[in-house]
């Protein structure tokens, strides 16, 4: 979803992201702008304009004024929450009273103990601010025990910003899931602590935008579970192969030294010892060759799974389409976007990608590919 923010330093409907250009906008100006937007996008309204409140008009105005349109926009307008979404070529709007909620979370040590998180750390002089831990707690709180189990061993790192190559095109960059060999982590950035008047979710169950991003990254972590198992298996096999290689190398060196001593002073006992040691080294070499073949098979499987998550591919086969434009960029993003929306705004996912709701409800994302 594209979650646009309008307003709020009362009494002006504006902020750093969108400026409507007037204080306490008059109905006539909003209606005129809305009509232009509807005509430009070929949309119609579900309700007559006279039945739409001023906050709802603001939401509709923003939805039709944006160059980038998605299926739904959620806005926090002073003491009113507004959601606007498309149903075919019809634009629908709903609102409910409610101001911005508190965003003060517990300390990170409490979250680690409560949810069994992996070890947290900070970089660049950052700390686990209450706004950040609030978003993390919101995200973890909507997961099932089985879903949270997939986060075991994953580190949580608070950093200023993520690498440019990891930033999504536009939008909030609050967190990123990173897997580098056995180092697997969820990095949380400054955007997660930034003040915002936006929300994600339903009118009666709002979440911070950072919560949605963190759930998206948790979705990647769940989709990546099989790959992490393959990685652990591969690294374990590689370590054992390296141990045997070194043992074989030491054995060959020792055998050559024994042969040199035997040639200088041959004895029957010396010959027997060399034959026994030679047989052991040959067996060790054969084991090393077999393990090298197994290691190469594991490497190929790991590389095949690294390109695209097998679970994301399964999701793409069984649930066509994507719930957001970002989800359409790859199967991995389609899975993560649907996973996050399933947890924060199931009605929106039902509208955008109904098959995804049934798929996640069935628990297929926990069964593995």
Give an account of the 3D structure.
With 369 residues, this protein is α/β, with parallel strands linked by helices. The chain is 51% helix and 15% strand. A hairpin with a 4-residue loop joins β1 and β2. The N terminus is likely disordered.
For the termini, the CA-CA separation is: 26 Å
Average of the residue pLDDT scores: 82
CATH fold naming of the largest domain = Hect, E3 ligase catalytic fold
Q: Strands across the major sheet, in which order?
A: 3-6-5-4
Order of helices and strands: EEHEHEEEHEHHEEEEEHHHHHHHH
How would you sum up the major sheet?
4 strands, mixed
Short description:
Helices cover 51% and strands 15% of the residues.
List keywords for this structure.
4 domains, disordered N terminus, 15% strand, 369 residues, Hect, E3 ligase catalytic fold, 12 strands, single chain, 4-stranded mixed β-sheet, alpha/beta
List the helices and strands and how they pair.
Elements: E1 12-14, E2 19-23, H1 27-41, E3 44-45, H2 54-65, E4 72-77, E5 80-87, E6 90-97, H3 108-115, E7 120-122, H4 130-141, H5 145-149, E8 155-158, E9 175-180, E10 183-188, E11 200-202, E12 205-207, H6 209-223, H7 225-264, H8 268-307, H9 310-318, H10 331-344, H11 346-352, H12 354-361, H13 364-367
Parallel strand pairs: 3-6, 7-8, 8-10
Antiparallel strand pairs: 1-2, 4-5, 5-6, 9-10, 11-12
């Amino acid at each position: 979803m594209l979650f646009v923010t309008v307003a709020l330093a009362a009494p002006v409907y504006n902020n750093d992201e969108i400026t409507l250009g007037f204080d306490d906008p008059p109905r006539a100006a909003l209606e005129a702008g809305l009509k232009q937007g509807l005509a430009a996008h070929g949309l119609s309204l579900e309700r007559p304009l006279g039945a739409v409140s001023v906050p709802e008009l603001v939401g509709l105005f923003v939805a039709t004024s944006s160059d980038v349109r998605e299926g739904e926009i959620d806005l926090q307008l002073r003491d009113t929450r507004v959601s606007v979404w498309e149903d075919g070529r019809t634009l629908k709007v709903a609102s409910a009273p409610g101001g911005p909620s508190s965003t003060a979370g517990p300390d990170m040590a409490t979250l680690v103990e409560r949810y069994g998180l992996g070890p947290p750390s900070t970089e660049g002089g950052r700390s686990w601010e209450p706004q950040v831990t609030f978003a993390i707690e919101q995200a973890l709180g909507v997961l099932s025990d089985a879903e949270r189990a997939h986060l075991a061993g994953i580190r949580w790192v608070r950093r200023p910003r993520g690498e440019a190559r990891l930033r999504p095109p536009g939008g909030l960059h609050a967190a990123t899931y990173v897997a580098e060999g056995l180092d697997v982590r969820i990095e949380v950035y400054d955007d997660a602590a930034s003040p915002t008047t936006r929300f994600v979710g339903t009118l009666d169950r709002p979440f911070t935008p950072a919560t949605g991003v963190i759930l998206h990254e948790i979705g990647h972590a769940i989709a990546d579970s099989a790959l992490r198992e393959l990685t652990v298996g591969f690294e374990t096999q590689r370590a054992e192969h390296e141990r045997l290689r070194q043992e074989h190398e030491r054995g060959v060196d020792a055998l050559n030294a024994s042969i040199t001593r035997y040639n200088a002073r041959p004895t029957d006992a010396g010959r027997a010892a060399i034959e026994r040691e030679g047989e052991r080294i040959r067996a060790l070499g054969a084991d090393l060759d077999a393990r090298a073949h197994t290691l190469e098979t594991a490497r190929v499987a790991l590389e095949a799974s690294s390109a695209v998550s097998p679970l994301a591919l399964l999701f793409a086969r069984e649930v066509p389409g994507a719930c957001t434009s970002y989800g359409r960029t790859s199967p991995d993003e389609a899975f993560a976007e649907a996973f996050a929306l399933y947890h924060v705004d199931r009605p929106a996912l039902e509208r955008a990608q109904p098959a995804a709701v049934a798929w996640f409800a069935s628990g297929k994302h926990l069964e593995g590919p």
